[in-house]
Structure formats: structure tokens, C-alpha cells
Automatic annotation (TrEMBL):
One of its GO terms (molecular function) is actin filament binding. Keywords: Actin-binding, Cytoplasm, Cytoskeleton, Repeat. The keyword Kinase does not apply. Interacts with F-actin. This is Calponin-homology (CH) domain-containing protein.
Length: 666
């Protein structure tokens, strides 16, 4: 099972919306639509589409014909498989809307980290709120200040988003330092190439902070399609607003729980769930009898807000708010009271009364930021700090979590170690990268009450891993269920590495089935740099000389000469200069088109696993776009490379996994 080749779609964002099982089924339907001349036209699709499971008994053949006619007046137009998939997604959205199901996957862009092409309507109230956020946080930006403030009543937001600068800057507001601004093209007038580079940098950086952009491409942003732009902006703002809702940033949150078991549960909660827990904690103290379970219907009457604000800010407390019977007037009083805490940016009285989940979430998060009302219990805080991972484990957890979320599986990961323990997430990932490997009839979907079902899921994970030639010596599913962090990281590293090597193998049509090894990647990189007339070489992925960043800058320049601005590159002699180069390398690679999740520290400290992923990502981009000839990817072994016998063999960073974990030397 080491050579899975599924249905490949050139648009990775489009492909990531489907499992391979779905793609194979849809491809069969697509092929069946061929007419007598062997072509597939729009007119051939309705009788095939109306039989598909998601559309059957909802949209008739006539409905589908009418919808397709809306997008093209020529039904004899020949289409390809990607156009078929896009048409299917659009029809799926229409079918769901016809059923009245507004809880469509991805429709709540703020509460679910999803951006899809299915939701086409945008809330003007949300748009106005996000514009106010942008005006506030970016008003002093040297480049954007000439374009701000944006008028929310116009399309100025979308016009400004077309060049990509605004979205890149907004990502840096949400997670400072994500994008090296030296990599952003900030001329007043950008050419199409520069504009595309900015949007590529934006999308890859958005994934690297936790946004899910499974079917949004650079062209969507160039065209500034409103629902996609607003959806992406809402995700970025959500990440900023919820950034402190974890024990690492706010250890005082430990006050919300009673014992160590509850602390573990708190660590595994999504940030919005922590926010609800915090709100209910204070409401209970205030004597409020109800439990707030959501940011929409439970907040419409304003009572919870009134109790919360009176508890958090007794100096501004009043009984008038609760005495008021009119919901709109009460909401207005709530906002007036919150303004005294400088919380006035996200909601209007109408937003509260109508139960806008996105904006209520933003409002509650803002209240938390300004007045969380938590005490400083040093004993509890010390206990919470003891449960934090070391720096390297934390960085690797972040990398694998973001990588999994970028795959477009149904489950969104908030805490890697907690979320994989049922085995379900790992099965979803395996189904994505090794189509057909998972026996879903033998899998149990969460929530799982019976512990042995979790073990069954994880046993299947281990079985598939062994079939993929992962090194899993004396490992059982129960090790994952128990949350063995070293083992989980070791398994995920082999999983990520397998994925990278398979992608490279699938692009090497001349390889005749020969597996790609670490040595191939290292040799390709060295030869690429040498062919560009540069002198840098990499002895191995642990080569300490890589810490100054010069080799990767030369490699990036070799695959695309115009992508590196050498005038901003340092010599990398001091720690500060190394940090500058490392940050620039990551942004330039993302700007080129590499989907990577490492941090500058991984380059500076020469984390060999992350160095391998960076090199492989650059190689993958180069093979995709430059059609390297066979002799640029040498077949001979490099005595300094980490050569493997199989695509998933252990490296010296992650040697054979044993029952009690792995002995990582890095």
C-alpha cells in the first residue's frame, strides 16, 4: 500500500474538499456523461447530476438544467472534470438551500473555521463590523493609511482586497510576525504576477495560522468575490479575538475548573467553548440560573449580557438594564455599559436581538480581553504551567495540527494530542492521503462512549500505518488512546513525510515507480543551487550551516529568480540576522506557493524534520511549475543524506517507534 495514486485534481484547494472515495465516484459519473462524440458538455450533465446522492430527490433534471444555464448560455460548451466538480458544489449548495438547511458546512464562517463556495450571501452587519475592525487596527499602517478608513456602505473593502496587501496585513495583526512584510508586494499599482504572489502568500499564511481555506484560490481573491473575502476576513479576526483563550496565554483560566482531570479537558476545548465556559462561570457567580450554550438564541434577550457586565464591572453596574422590557432598548443599554469598558466595536442592538452568532462571539471575546474577572491563584496557575509542553514539542504539535487542518477533512483540530485519541481524526487523514486504506465499517465516529471503540479505531490506524511501511515496533492502538505524546508525534511525522514523498513520486513520471528518498530531495536541492551558479551546499538536513538561511534563499532564487529580493537579505552572522533571514525564507516560500507550517526557530535551530519539509515543499513546487528534467533529480545515493529503504522508513530524528514512545535525538 505504499503507492496509492488517487484521482488527482490540479487545483489542490478544490481537491481538498473531497475524499478520494467521493472523487472516484464523481469521476465515474463525469465519464458516464460522455456523448457519442466522446465529449462531455454542460448539456450532458443534468441527467447524470440528478442521480447523485446529494442531489437526488431534491433537484430535478430540469432544475439542474436551469441552474447550469445561469452560469453559461452555451450548453454545448465542453467542460473538464474540475468544472464538473465546481458545478457539483454549486448544485449541492442549491440543494441544501432548497431543504432550508442553513446550517450548511462552512456557512458560519466565524464559528466554524471554513470558507466554502456554497455561501454566497453576506451579512451587511458583519461586513460593517469587520470594516470597523480593519479601520481600527490598520489605520496607522504606512501603506494602508492612504486607503483607510473604509466606508462599509460601499464596495471599497473588496476593491482594496484585490491587491492582497490588506489581507496579508490583517493576518499579521491577528498573529504578529506570521508574514515578513518585506515579502509583500506593496507598489501602488501591481501587475497580475505581483498581485497573484500576494494572494498566494496570503492563503498559505492563512493556513499557517489556522484558517481553513479548502476551496478558495488566488483568482477568487483577485476578483474579490464578496462571500469568500468576508469569510476569510472573519476567520482571521476570530483567530485574533480568541488568541488569549488558552492556558498558555491566560493561565488564570485554570480557575474555571476544579481538578487536574478538568484541566486536561479545558486544554482540549476549542477557544469558543472556553469562552462559553468562562461566561457561564461568571453568570453562575452572579446567580443567573440559565446556561448559555451558544452565541445566538441564548443571548437574544440580553439578560445574560446584563448579568455578565454587572459582575465584571460592578463600578458601572445598574438594575435599569434588567428592568427594561423592550429587547432592543435593553440591548442598547448593554452596549452603552460595555462602552465604559471600551467594548463597542462589533455589535449593534439589532445584532444582539437577532442573535448574530458571529458578532456576539466577537463581542463576548472583546469583553474577555478587557475584563476577564479571573483571580490570580498562584497554586492553580503553577499547576497549569506544569502541564505545558516543552518548546520543541509545542512547535511540532502546532505544525502537525495546522497541517491536518489544511487537508480539508471534516474534523477541525484545536488540540492535537487530545483530538487524535479517539482515532477518528487519524482515520480521516489516512483516508485523505491513502485512499481506500480505511475500512469505515469498522470505525466508530465520535462522540464515543465505549472506550474499546476508541481502541478499535486506533488499532486500525496502527494497522494501516504498518501497511504503509511506517516503523511501529510494539505499538498498539491503546498507546494513542492513552495520549502518548512522543508516539503521536512520531506517527504524525511519518504520516506527513509519507504524504510529501508520495506527492513528489506522483510528479516524477520518469521514476518508473521508484520510491523517492530523503537522499533524492537533498541531492536535488544541492544540484539546483549549483546549477544556478551558487556555491552553497547542504551536507544533510542537520547541517548547522543552514541556520543562517543562505542555502534556502539561494535554492528559492534558483527555482524562481525573481522571488528573492537580495537587497533585504542579511549575512546571517548574528542571531538577529538569522531570525530576519529565517522569517523572510518562510514568507518567500509561501509567496512562491509552498504550503509549509514551520517557524523561524526551526530554521535557526536546524530542526531536521522541518528542514526536510521545507526542502521537499520547494522541490514539489519546482517540479510542478518548471518541469525539471530527469537528470536534475539524481538517482545516486548521497553519502551524507538520510537515505531510506522505503518512503516511510524511520530517520535518526524519529527512529523506530517503540511502545514507550520514541527516542528523538533532535
Amino acid at each position: 500500500m505504499s503507492g496509492f495514486v488517487g484521482v488527482v485534481v490540479s487545483d489542490q484547494n478544490l481537491q481538498s474538499q473531497f475524499t478520494q472515495v467521493e472523487l472516484r465516484g464523481l469521476h465515474s459519473s463525469f465519464v458516464s456523461a460522455r456523448n457519442e462524440s466522446g465529449k462531455i458538455t454542460l448539456g450532458n450533465l443534468p441527467p447524470v447530476m440528478c442521480k447523485l446522492k446529494a442531489l437526488k430527490d431534491i433537484l430535478t433534471e430540469d432544475d439542474i438544467s436551469r441552474i447550469l444555464n445561469e452560469s453559461s448560455s452555451d450548453m454545448t460548451e465542453e467542460i473538464d472534470f474540475e468544472s464538473f466538480l465546481r458545478a457539483y458544489l454549486d448544485l449541492q449548495g442549491r440543494a441544501t438551500a432548497k431543504l432550508g438547511n442553513t446550517k450548511l458546512k462552512g456557512s458560519s464562517s466565524f464559528l466554524k473555521a471554513r470558507t466554502t463556495t456554497i455561501r454566497h450571501n453576506i451579512s451587511e452587519s458583519e461586513k460593517a463590523s469587520y470594516v470597523a475592525h480593519i479601520n481600527s487596527f490598520l489605520r496607522e499602517d504606512k501603506f494602508l493609511k492612504d486607503y483607510l478608513p473604509i466606508d462599509p456602505s460601499t464596495n471599497a473593502l473588496f476593491d482594496l482586497a484585490k491587491d492582497g496587501v490588506l489581507l496579508c496585513k490583517l493576518i499579521n495583526v491577528a498573529v504578529p510576525g506570521t508574514i515578513d512584510e518585506r515579502a509583500i508586494n506593496t507598489k501602488k499599482v501591481l501587475n497580475p504576477w505581483e498581485r497573484n504572489e500576494n494572494h498566494t502568500l496570503c492563503l498559505n499564511s492563512a493556513k499557517a495560522i489556522g484558517c481553513t481555506v479548502v476551496n478558495i484560490g488566488t483568482q477568487d481573491l483577485v476578483e474579490a468575490r464578496p462571500h469568500l473575502v468576508v469569510g476569510l476576513i472573519s476567520q482571521i479576526i476570530k483567530i485574533q479575538l480568541l488568541a488569549d483563550l488558552n492556558l498558555k496565554k491566560t493561565p488564570q483560566l485554570v480557575e474555571l475548573v476544579e481538578d487536574s482531570k478538568d484541566v486536561e479537558e479545558l486544554i482540549g476545548l476549542a477557544p469558543e467553548k472556553v469562552l462559553l465556559k468562562w461566561m457561564n462561570f461568571h453568570l453562575k457567580k452572579a446567580g443567573y440560573k440559565k446556561t448559555v450554550n451558544n452565541f445566538s438564541s441564548d443571548l437574544k434577550d440580553g439578560e445574560a449580557y446584563a448579568h455578565l457586565l454587572n459582575t465584571l464591572a460592578p463600578e458601572h453596574g445598574t438594575t435599569t438594564t434588567l428592568d427594561t422590557k423592550d429587547p432592543t432598548e435593553r440591548a442598547n443599554l448593554i452596549i452603552q455599559q460595555a462602552e465604559k469598558l471600551d467594548c463597542k466595536r462589533y455589535v449593534t442592538p439589532q445584532d444582539i436581538v437577532e442573535g448574530s452568532a458571529n458578532l456576539n462571539l466577537a463581542f463576548v471575546a472583546q469583553i474577555f480581553q478587557h475584563r476577564n474577572g479571573l483571580s490570580v491563584d498562584t497554586k492553580k496557575i503553577s499547576f497549569a504551567e506544569m502541564m505545558e509542553d516543552d518548546a520543541e514539542t509545542s512547535r511540532e504539535e502546532r505544525c502537525f495540527r495546522l497541517w491536518i487542518n489544511s487537508l480539508g477533512i471534516d474534523t477541525y483540530i484545536n488540540n492535537l494530542f487530545d483530538n487524535v485519541r479517539t482515532g477518528w481524526v487519524l482515520l480521516e487523514v489516512l483516508d485523505k492521503i491513502a485512499p481506500g486504506s480505511v475500512n469505515w465499517k469498522q470505525a466508530t465516529k465520535p462522540p464515543i462512549k465505549m472506550p474499546f471503540r476508541k481502541v478499535e479505531n486506533c488499532n486500525q490506524v496502527i494497522r494501516i500505518g504498518k501497511e504503509l511501511n511506517f516503523s511501529l515496533v510494539n505499538v498498539a492502538g491503546n498507546d494513542i488512546v492513552q495520549g502518548n505524546k512522543k508516539l503521536i508525534l512520531a506517527f504524525l511525522w511519518q504520516l506527513m513525510r509519507f504524504t510529501m514523498l508520495q506527492l513528489l513520486k506522483n510528479l516524477r513520471f520518469h521514476s518508473q515507480g521508484k520510491e523517492i528518498t530523503d537522499a533524492d530531495i537533498l541531492n536535488w536541492a544541492n544540484r539546483k543551487v549549483k546549477s544556478a551558479g551558487r556555491k552553497s551546499q547542504m551536507e544533510s538536513f542537520k547541517d548547522k550551516s543552514l541556520s543562517n538561511g543562505m542555502f534556502f534563499l539561494e535554492l528559492l532564487s534558483a527555482v524562481e529568480p525573481r522571488v528573492v529580493n537580495w537587497s533585504v537579505v542579511t549575512k546571517g552572522e548574528t542571531d538577529e540576522d538569522k531570525k530576519l533571514n529565517a522569517t523572510y525564507i518562510i514568507s518567500v516560500a509561501r509567496k512562491l506557493g509552498c504550503s509549509i507550517f514551520l517557524l523561524p526557530e526551526d530554521i535557526i535551530e536546524v530542526n531536521s524534520k522541518m528542514i526536510l519539509t521545507l526542502t521537499a515543499s520547494i522541490m514539489y513546487w519546482s517540479l510542478q511549475h518548471k518541469a525539471d528534467t530527469p537528470d536534475t533529480i539524481p538517482e545516486e545515493d548521497n553519502e551524507n543524506a538520510a537515505s531510506d529503504e522505503s518512503p516511510a522508513a524511520p530517520t535518526d530524528e524519529y527512529p523506530a517507534v517503540v511502545a514507550d514512545g520514541y527516542n528523538a535525538s533532535s
